[in-house]
Amino acid sequence: MADRRRDDEETRIRAALRSPAPTRAETRRRGATLAARAHREGLIEVAFGSADTPIGTLLLVATDAGLVRVGLSGTDHELILEQLASRVSPRVVEHPERLDPIKRQLEEYFAGQRRHFEYPIDWRLSSGFVRGVLERTAEIPFGETRTYAEMAELAGSPRAARAAGSALGANPIPVVVPCHRVLRGGGGLGGYAGGLDAKRMLLELEGALG
Fold first, then answer.
1. Is the pTM of this model over 0.85?
2. How far does CA 207 lie from the centroid of its chain?
3. Could you tell me which CATH class the domain 128-205 is placed in?
4. Between the CA of residue 98 and those of 62, 66, 160, what are the distances in Å?
5. What confidence score (pLDDT) does residue 71 get?
6. Which of 65, 98, 114, 179 has CA 20 to 30 A from 185's CA?
7. What pLDDT, in 10s, does the model give residues 19-28?
8. Which is the catalytic residue, given 179, 198, 203, 208?
9. What angle do CA 84, 69, 112 make, to 5 degrees?
């Protein structure tokens, strides 16, 4: 009996080895099917996708509350997803269709057809002074700029210009929350997580650089 079970197991292994490996297209289809099922059953708490833009590929991540994270080109997207699994929910699933609305808005923005985003924001990754700075940053109109000192004052701490700069550097939702619109007091660009070339490109797109 034991010999027969061993023969059956060997037969199954040989059959598996003869089966061709799934193609990338098949793997993507299976993943999409699983994601759709998870979405229907309410198992997705954090959905992610990507968007190709003039400043590189952006990682887009949303919860039921709204957009929670945008990863700029050049940042470690895998690390971002790991951090979200730890801080927000372990149910992080690739489901690009759920991000389609914000992807379309980004396409319109980079095409010069949109001046502000109409997509809910999930602020849970920011709190206290940082959140105050970022909420005020979200209100800066298209084509305008502010200084770090001005953002500190708007957030209620007029002497905290350097801290405001650090808060903007920690912005989890760049582009949509336009930290690129905040400059140094003397007119210098300051810093940007995606690099100064990307910051300059965004400001030029908005006509905010002379």
1. no
2. 24
3. mainly alpha
4. 8, 11, 38
5. 98
6. 114
7. 454 454 543 4
8. 179
9. 160
